[in-house]
Design goal:
single chain, about 450 residues, alpha/beta, Rossmann fold, GMP Synthetase, Chain A, domain 3, twelve-stranded mixed sheet, four-stranded mixed sheet, about 35% helix
Length: about 450
C-alpha cells in the first residue's frame, strides 16, 4: 500500500474509534439527570465561547461592543447577554463565521437547500461530524421500536439530489468504517420525480423505513389514496425539513396503520431534536446545542407558548454560531416527557417564518391553520397558498373526484375571506398536481412579504 493509502486508512480507523468512543454513552445520555446534562452543556458552551472569541474577529468585536468577556458566558442562560445573530448574516458573510484555524479540505462543507431563497454554506469539522454520527443512536433507538430491529433493515429516502444527508453519507463512507453487520441497506427516490414514479420505486425496493420531506410524503400518499393506487406500506415513515399536514398524518396512521415519526434538523446544526416513541414532543439534544425560544422582542416565552428558536452550536469548530436565529417558529414544551427521557422538549415545530402567511392584523399562520374547520377539507388532496400582499392570494388546489369543483372553489374562497379579511382577493386554481420546488421540497405556503 502506498503512503497516502496507509495514511488514509489510519485516518479512517482513528475517526471510527473516535465515533465508537463517543457512542459508548449514547444509550444512557437521553436519560441522564437534568443537572448532569446541564453540566455537560455548560462545559461545551464555555469551550466554544472561548474558542469563538480567540479565533473569530466577528465574535471578538461583538463581545467588545457589548462590553462582555468570554468568562461571563458560563451556562445557557448567560447567552441572553449576547445579541441575536440573524440568519441573513451567515448567508451574506459566511466567512465571518468560519474559524481562522479551519483548514480548507478538512471536515465537510454543507449547503442548505435554500427554501427561503438564501442558501447557506456551513463548514463542519471532522470531530463534530463524528459526534453527530454517534448521536444518531438515540434516534435509531426510537426507530427500532417500530421497525423491530436496530440494524440491518432496508431504508429509503425521498429527497432531492443535493440533500444534506447524501453529502454526509459520502463523508462518513470516506472517513470512517462501519461494519456491515451494523449498517443499513439504502436506496433513494428523487422528490422531483412524478408521484407515480416515486410509488413505483418504493414498491420495487420495499423499504422497512421510508424517510423524506414531510409535505412531500404527505402529498404522495394522499395522491395514492385518492387515485386508488396500490402502494407498499413500510413499517415506519419518518420526516423532517418540512411539516407533514395533520390530515396526511391521520391518513397514514389511522387509515393505513403506518406510524410516523419526525426529527428536527438544519444544516447549521444537523440534528437539533427528535420525537420519541410517544410522538408527543421533540427532545432537544442539549449536549450539542443550547436553545431559547423568544418572542418578537427577544424575550423568552413561557412553556406552551410560540416563538422563534435561537440556537448555539456546541460541537462544531468549523462554522461557529452563537445565539443564532434559525428562522423557525416552535412551541416550547411544558414539562418532561412520559417516556422517561430528561432532555428538554419542544412541543411542536410550527414552521419556517418565511413559510408562514402574514395576516392583515399582523398574525403569522400556516395555511393548515386557515383551513381548519373548512367543510370540504377532506376533499383537498393537495393545496398551496401564495401571498402577494396582505390582501391578495392565489390558492392552488388538487381536489378529489368526489366533489363538485365550482362548489368547492366558491366555498373555499368564502371560508378564507372569513379567516383573513372580508376584502381579501383570493384566486382559486385547479391543478392535477402541484410540483415541488427547486430544492426538492414541497411548500404549502409561499409568502412574498417579509
Amino acid at each position: 500500500m502506498n503512503p497516502d493509502g496507509t495514511l488514509h486508512m489510519a485516518r479512517r480507523l482513528f475517526w471510527s474509534a473516535f465515533t465508537g468512543w463517543q457512542a459508548f454513552r449514547e444509550p444512557s445520555l437521553p436519560y441522564w439527570p437534568p443537572e448532569r446534562l446541564a453540566a455537560l452543556q455548560s462545559r461545551r458552551l464555555r469551550r466554544i465561547v472561548h474558542y469563538a472569541y480567540d479565533t473569530f474577529p466577528y465574535y471578538r468585536d461583538l463581545f467588545d461592543r457589548e462590553h462582555l468577556r468570554p468568562e461571563q458566558i458560563r451556562c445557557a442562560d448567560d447567552l441572553r447577554k449576547l445579541p441575536i445573530v440573524e440568519a441573513d448574516a451567515l448567508c451574506h458573510a459566511p466567512d465571518s463565521f468560519v474559524s481562522q484555524r479551519y483548514r480548507a479540505g478538512s471536515g465537510a462543507m454543507l449547503m442548505s437547500s435554500g427554501v427561503s431563497g438564501n442558501s447557506k454554506l456551513v463548514h463542519w469539522d471532522t470531530a463534530a461530524l463524528c459526534r453527530i454520527l454517534a448521536s444518531k443512536h438515540r434516534y435509531r433507538e426510537v426507530l427500532a421500536r417500530f421497525v423491530g430491529k436496530t440494524f440491518g433493515y432496508r431504508e429509503m429516502s425521498v429527497s432531492n439530489p443535493e440533500n444534506v444527508a447524501i453529502a454526509l453519507r459520502a463523508f462518513y463512507e470516506a472517513n470512517t468504517w462501519v461494519p456491515r453487520s451494523v449498517d443499513y441497506e439504502r436506496s433513494r427516490a428523487l422528490s422531483t420525480s412524478s408521484f407515480d414514479e416515486i410509488l413505483e420505486q418504493i414498491d420495487a425496493y420495499r423499504p422497512d423505513h421510508l424517510g423524506g420531506y414531510g409535505a412531500t410524503l404527505g402529498a404522495l400518499y394522499r395522491y395514492a389514496h385518492e387515485h386508488g393506487t396500490p402502494f407498499y406500506r413500510p413499517l415506519l415513515i419518518t420526516y423532517g425539513a418540512s411539516n407533514l399536514p395533520e390530515q396526511d398524518r391521520v391518513l397514514l396512521e389511522e387509515r393505513y396503520n403506518i406510524p410516523v415519526v419526525s426529527s428536527y434538523q438544519a444544516s447549521e446544526f444537523l440534528r437539533i431534536a427528535y420525537q420519541c416513541e410517544l410522538r408527543q414532543s421533540f427532545h432537544v439534544c442539549i449536549d450539542q446545542v443550547a436553545f431559547r425560544v423568544v418572542d418578537d422582542d427577544g424575550v423568552d416565552v413561557r412553556p406552551g407558548e410560540q416563538g422563534r428558536i435561537i440556537l448555539t452550536n456546541l460541537v462544531n469548530h468549523g462554522t461557529v454560531l452563537l445565539n443564532y436565529a434559525l428562522g423557525d417558529l416552535v412551541i416550547l414544551g411544558e414539562g418532561p416527557c412520559a417516556c422517561g427521557r430528561t432532555l428538554p422538549t419542544i412541543r411542536a415545530i410550527v414552521g419556517r417564518a418565511f413559510d408562514l402567511l402574514v395576516l392583515p392584523g399582523g398574525q403569522r399562520t400556516h395555511m393548515d391553520g386557515l383551513i381548519k374547520g373548512f367543510a370540504y377539507r377532506r376533499h383537498l388532496v393537495q393545496w398551496q397558498m401564495e401571498q402577494y400582499t396582505l390582501y391578495r392570494y392565489t390558492v392552488r388546489v388538487v381536489p378529489d373526484s368526489q366533489v363538485d369543483w365550482d362548489t368547492l372553489a366558491t366555498a373555499l374562497a368564502l371560508h378564507l375571506r372569513q379567516m383573513i379579511h372580508p376584502e381579501a382577493v383570493i384566486a382559486i386554481e385547479r391543478l392535477e398536481y402541484i410540483p415541488v420546488g427547486r430544492s426538492g421540497k414541497f411548500k404549502a405556503c409561499i409568502s412574498h412579504l417579509s
